[in-house]
From TrEMBL:
Keywords: Cell membrane, Membrane, Transmembrane, Transmembrane helix, Transport
Region of interest: Disordered: 1-24
PANTHER family, per database record: ABC TRANSPORTER PERMEASE PROTEIN, OLIGOPEPTIDE TRANSPORT SYSTEM PERMEASE PROTEIN APPC
A Pfam family per the record: BPD_transp_1
Name the record gives this protein: ABC transporter permease
Domain ABC transmembrane type-1: 126-328
Location(s), subcellular: Cell membrane
Bilayer topology term: Multi-pass membrane protein
Similarity remark: Belongs to the binding-protein-dependent transport system permease family.
Length: 346
């Protein structure tokens, strides 16, 4: 009788380690927090936003001026007790020249041609530019998400009609289209059924800029929806009897939402640039309200004698847009599933 062979120990391969880092959202957030360039950009953006939000505090309690009321015959008292008129006769004897930077709390950067505090107006103008940029970005992303979802999911005639409308809007240069709509609605505003947007409201440039940029969000969303809709798990959900609302809410929307989040900082940056351009041309923010674009336009008239009036808001606009673009690129690299392959290709 043969002895049974002793049982050989089972060969155990290397144990599969669970994927660390949680879900893609958590991994992306950790990648953003570990990026020093992102942190510096976020800090710079936070400083600019906080300073603009504190505009009423600066104007009311520090400078003691009203940046929206013209004061052509006013004056200010310097720290040494000297009384200086806000508008002085020009050296050439023609016209007037506003007071330059005082380096003090009141009229820190001088006055404009109407005797208003430039520093206070820059802070108020930055607040309007930021608000319009963020709200217009939200309008563009929300409208693009809805249009892209409908076109990509429904398909057929609906997709064809919406795609042709987007193509028509896309065919116009953004600046020219925005200028045309703004010029038409500048005096009378816009009426949409029961909703009326007055010409002096900040909602008018928000609506115009947001609608102009809807195709730039709708097209990538539509492409993502078409790709997700053809996936096996969507077909499985359909075979199990899931309704259209459940499929969109549970299967499609979570897979395309990251693309909209990636586009949002870029939409805010481009909306701020477009708003400043419209305001520079006089068809954006209505006076006496200010934006960085209107202040830059005021400063161009005094560029030789008072260059800071145009340089400071222009520099703040450029810095803000650059920071938003850096954040947008970082968010794309963090949440784009192809980011790792792109980084390896570099």
């Amino acid at each position: 009788m043969t002895e049974p062979h002793p049982a050989q120990p089972a060969v155990v391969g290397p144990r599969a380690e669970p994927e660390s880092g949680g879900g893609p959202w958590r991994r992306g957030l950790r990648a953003l927090l570990g990026n020093s360039r992102v942190m510096v950009s976020a800090a710079v953006l936070a400083v600019i936003v906080v300073l603009c939000l504190l505009a009423p505090l600066y104007a009311g309690h520090i400078s003691g001026t009203d940046p929206f009321v013209a004061d052509p015959v006013g004056s200010t008292v310097l720290d040494d007790g000297t009384v200086v008129p806000l508008l002085q006769p020009a050296p050439q004897g023609v016209g007037v020249l506003p007071i330059g930077p005082t380096g003090q709390a009141h009229f820190l950067l001088g006055a404009d041609g109407d005797g208003r505090d430039v520093a206070a107006r820059i802070l108020y103008g930055g607040r309007n530019t930021l608000v319009i940029g963020v709200l217009a970005g939200l309008v563009a992303c929300a409208g693009g998400l809805v249009v892209g979802l409908i076109a990509g999911y429904v398909g057929g005639v609906v997709d064809g009609v919406l795609s042709r409308i987007l193509d028509v809007v896309w065919a116009f240069p953004v600046l020219m289209l925005a200028i045309s709509i703004s010029a038409i609605s500048f005096a009378s505003g816009i009426s949409l059924g029961f909703v009326r947007v007055s010409s002096g409201s900040l909602a008018l440039p928000v609506l115009i800029i947001g609608v102009v940029y809807v195709p730039y969000v709708a097209r990538p969303v539509r492409g993502a929806v078409l790709s997700v809709r053809a996936a096996d798990y969507v077909g499985a959900a359909t075979s199990y009897g899931a309704g259209h609302g459940r499929i969109i809410r549970r299967e499609i929307l979570p897979n395309v939402l990251s693309r909209v989040i990636v586009l949002f900082p870029l939409m805010v940056a481009t909306a701020m640039l477009l708003e400043s351009g419209l305001s520079f041309l006089g068809i954006g923010v209505h006076p006496p309200a200010a934006s960085w674009g209107t202040i830059i336009e005021d400063g161009t008239q005094l560029l030789r004698s008072r260059p800071l009036m145009a340089i400071v808001p222009g520099a703040l606009l450029a810095i803000t847009v650059c920071v938003l673009n850096i954040l947008g690129d970082a968010i794309r690299d963090a949440f784009d599933p192809k980011a790792e392959l792109r980084m390896r290709a570099r």
